[in-house]
Amino acid sequence: MSDRVQDRAPPMAVAPPSWREKMEPWFFILPSVILLLAIGLYPVIYTLVASLQSWVMGMGPPSFGGLQNYAHAFTSSDFGHSVLRTLVLIVITLPIELALGMMIALALDSQNFLVLRRLLQICLVIPIAITPSVVGLLTQLMFNQQLGIINHLLGYIGIPALDWLGRPLSAYTTVLIVQIWEWTPFVALVLSAALSTVPQDIDEAAVLETERWWPRFRSIQLPFMWPGITAALVFQTAFTIKEFDMIYTIEKGGPGTATETAVMQIERMAFRGFDVGLAAAESILMLVLSILLARIYIRVFYREMD
Amino acid sequence: MSDLRAPLLRLLQAVGLVVTLLLILFPLYWMVTASLKTENDLFSMPPKWFFAPTLAAYADAIENTEVLGNLLNSVLVTVSAVALGLLVGAPAAYGIARYRFRGRRDVWFWYVTNWMLVPVVVLIPFYLTASWLGLINNPVVLILVYQVFIVPLVVWLLVDQFSAVPVALEEAAQLDGLSRVKIFLKISLPLVKPGIAVAAILSGIFAWNDMLYAFILTPSPDARTAPTVVLNYLGGYVIPWPQVMATSTMVCAPVIIGGIIVHKYIARGLTMGAVK
């Protein structure tokens, strides 16, 4: 991302940089690096060490256990399924959020319906701002089978009352729907900001050239939007992997473990199962997975800038 | 064909805008009206679209929980966390945007990686360390732990904003004899105000809304932040829904209002690497 500006290197130092000049950027950067080392890196190392221990709270002091926690994590179907549920959540919601977000961004970009567009622009902030644990509770209330407003509204168009939260598959579907509701506006905002970076003169020339929107979108707008799309992907993947509050307040990962994501499973293992070593190993595996995903996105989509 | 297509597209656009608006606003409407209903009104079938609003649920919520004190905790934690994040994050973004040095790319990627950090990785060590130091229920622990996502977010958003400030402007200031620090404070920082507003509101939203860290690190009823209050209600057999929704409305109102106030900066501040 930041390398896009490399061709515009600050021209201030012409002579070979002195020690002082070499250190100058670190003067600005160092405080945040120290802070993040303390609160970001220290816990990761702590977790890494804990993951190699046989450590169940209340069952004596930790002892070195080698890779047995990892072996356990890989063979645990509880953890495996929760990771799978998390990945499926990403794979299903991401393309939908991206497609809907793109449609909203394009609709906001045109000249018609000024009032509607302004109103929507303001309202897009709302789902992002609503506290996820409240979203979970609201879901419980609105998706209730007998008394929920959703089933009642669906009744108007002849759809029979669904048991949204009672069955594993439908509960998972409900989580998908709510996740999409919560985060599509954010994607729309990022894409909308990306769309605003399309240079006006180029865009106007394109509009003169063709009235159809597809060629204009493909060859003018889309190329300028890749950084925004990548950012949306990285953001959304992180949001989905980290999601806890909303799903937890819907029904604590239930029915059974039908909506339990990896983060929830690890939290349960650590704070209610008290198996710190195993939870730590699972956390490290999730960390590796999320770094891999971020790397892939940045590799694939920012490639053109190198 | 094409003259038919344009009005059709316009109709589609209008319908899309209206439907999106309704989908976004309806849950909010439902939450607020539920908080103003009695239990009978809330669960009457068919639903009551018109009802006599009452503030009884708010009175109950304030009486039965520590929600007011918890809201105050949230304000304290959120404001401090955002201030700290901006204090260390904004200079870092400037450093990355304005200097070319070895490891620049790695530093930037490291920030983004921290953004991806799964909370449990941080949570277990923080919990164990904080209990060891006797800092459970201390808001400082929350303020610190939120930097895990605030600093990366601030840096990510602001690198782009600082890069967009014309170098010529800073050169002119340098010729006038201003030091790099003064240039940063007096020239660049005021120019990236939209970015700072967006970074502040987004990190504020995420800090305010967090339940997971707060529920593990500040579990006692008076040390809690607002989003964990709603968990109180989940334990019981009967959930007093109007009261839950009243609490929810109080928890959400500050961030929704804050978000609406700064919304106009978002289009300029969320460019995420798209600035050439």
Task: Give a quick summary of the entry.
The complex is a heterodimer of chains A (306) and B (276). Chain A has 306 residues and is mostly helical.
User: Could you report the average pLDDT of chain A, rounded to the nearest whole number?
Assistant: 85
User: What is the strand tally of chain B?
Assistant: 0
SSE series of chain A: HEEHHHHHHHHHHHH
Largest interface: A-B, 114 and 118 residues
Figure out the total of helices of chain B: 14
Share of helix among residues of chain B? over 70%
User: N- to C-terminal separation of chain B?
Assistant: 38 Å
Strand content of chain B: under 5%
Q: Structural class of the helices, strands and pairings of chain B?
A: mainly alpha
Biggest β-sheet of chain B: count, sense, barrel? none
How many individual β-strands of chain A? 2
Structural class computed from helices and strand pairing of chain A: mainly alpha
Span between N and C termini of chain A? 10 Å
Q: Please compute the radius of gyration of chain A using only Cα atoms.
A: 24 Å
Q: Outline of chain B, from the CA principal axes? A: globular
What percentage of residues of chain A falls in helices of 4 or more residues? Answer: over 70%
What is the quaternary state of this protein?
A: heterodimer
Structural features, described:
The complex is a heterodimer of chains A (306) and B (276). Chain A contains 13 helices and 2 strands; from the N terminus they run αββαααααααααααα. Chain A has helices spanning 19-51, 68-75, 77-109, 114-123, 125-129, 132-142, 149-156, 168-195, 200-209, 213-242, 245-251, 262-271, 276-301; strands at 53-54, 63-64. In chain A, strands 1-2 form a two-stranded antiparallel sheet. In chain A, helix 2 (68-75) packs across helix 13 (276-301), helix 3 (77-109) packs antiparallel against helix 10 and helix 3 packs across helix 12 (262-271). The N and C termini of chain A lie close together (10 Å). Chain B is an all-alpha fold. Chain B is globular, with a radius of gyration of 23 Å.
